[in-house]
Specification:
Layout: E1 7-17, E2 39-42, E3 45-48, H1 52-70, H2 93-104, H3 111-116, H4 120-125, E4 134-136, E5 140-141, E6 148-157, E7 164-176, E8 179-187, H5 191-205, E9 222-234, E10 243-244, E11 266-267, E12 275-276, E13 282-288, H6 290-309
Antiparallel strand pairs: 1-8, 1-9, 2-3, 4-8, 5-8, 6-7, 9-13, 10-11, 12-13
């Protein structure tokens, strides 16, 4: 989508475990424990990490819950990725695209059509026909962080008796005392997308989001905190401080069905100027500290609320 980069957003997130956690390795080994953390070789040693795909999946799942909650009683702005029945209003975008291609007798949709016909979640996180706008890097430990490990025992439950199942004892290795640094990148961002993420980040701060195996057992509670948000514009097309723009303000033809309500300036209090880079190619707003970030979230979150209220599906009727 869009072969030109008009704006981009980089988000730095710190997360710290409040309870022991386990992000399981997919590998098998002979020795105990039965389940153990995934690790990578970094800084001259093996250390635990959170795969970017895992964190992105958690963020997407939580964003879907938020979207469905706000969409209640309205046209669903979020598909159900597992819904195969095309008569259901939340028919999965990926399944819809397969039906659509069969109906039109084409092998692949172009990027414009794929974005236009996607639900709001798939517009940000992607689907089989629409590339993700959000990139989440692998999440590594902060420098100097010394993770501790402990082994726990578990037992499978017999669903009929409610007691321990025969031969169902297992062991798992959990990690604690971990602090991670995460980075997310969004290219050609609509401001409502940043508003949706503001909800997710608020729930991270409140400790509502858990990561990894055994969440129902009390494992994997994390606290997250946004350290910095950078919104970058390219010199030929930049707003005047203290305004920010989404992608709609930066294109003449709205063939992608960008949100029309974003075709204007949005003022962010507490922002004074765009900082140029050393090559004169980009200019950047930097939001850091509680007050600046709060001003940013208070600007973009209402755009997301309105986007859900105004949502109209662009899908064709497949019947």
């Amino acid at each position: 989508m869009l072969k030109t980069i008009l704006n981009e957003c980089i988000i730095a997130l710190s997360i710290k475990n409040e309870t022991p956690f386990l992000i399981k390795s997919g590998m098998e080994r002979v020795e105990d424990p039965d389940m153990f953390p995934i690790k990578t070789f970094r800084n001259g040693r093996e250390e635990v990490f959170i795969p970017g795909s895992s964190l992105k999946g958690i963020i997407r799942s939580h964003a879907e819950k938020i979207t469905r909650t706000l969409s209640q009683g309205k046209k669903p702005a979020c598909c159900n990725p597992f819904e195969k029945n095309k008569d259901k209003p939340d028919f999965a975008c990926s399944s819809y695209f397969e039906e659509y291609k069969n109906k039109k007798n084409i092998k692949k949709l172009n990027g414009t059509e794929a974005y236009k016909q996607s639900c709001l979640i798939c517009r940000l996180f992607g689907s089989t026909e629409n590339a993700s706008r959000l990139i989440v890097r692998d999440v590594h430990l902060k420098a100097g962080c010394n993770v501790k490990f402990e082994t726990r025992s578990g037992v499978g439950i017999d669903r009929f008796t409610g007691g321990a199942a025969s031969g169902a004892l297992f062991s798992l290795e959990v990690a604690t005392n971990a602090e991670f640094e995460a980075q997310m990148y969004i290219r050609n961002i609509e401001l409502w997308q940043l508003g949706l993420l503001a909800y997710v980040f608020k729930d991270f701060e409140d400790g509502i989001i858990s990561i990894g195996y055994g969440k129902s057992r009390g494992l994997g509670k994390f606290i997250g905190k946004i350290d910095k948000v950078e919104i970058r514009y390219f010199v030929k097309c930049s707003p005047s401080p203290p305004n920010i723009w989404g992608i709609r303000k930066m294109v003449q033809k709205n063939e992608y069905d960008f949100y029309e309500e974003e075709n204007k300036d949005f003022e962010v209090k507490g922002v004074s100027n765009l900082i140029p880079d050393e090559f004169g190619f980009r200019q950047t707003y930097v939001f850091e500290g509680n007050s600046q970030l709060r001003y940013l979230w208070n600007t973009v979150a209402p755009i997301w609320n309105q986007r859900v209220d105004d949502y109209e599906s662009r899908r064709e009727n497949l019947k």
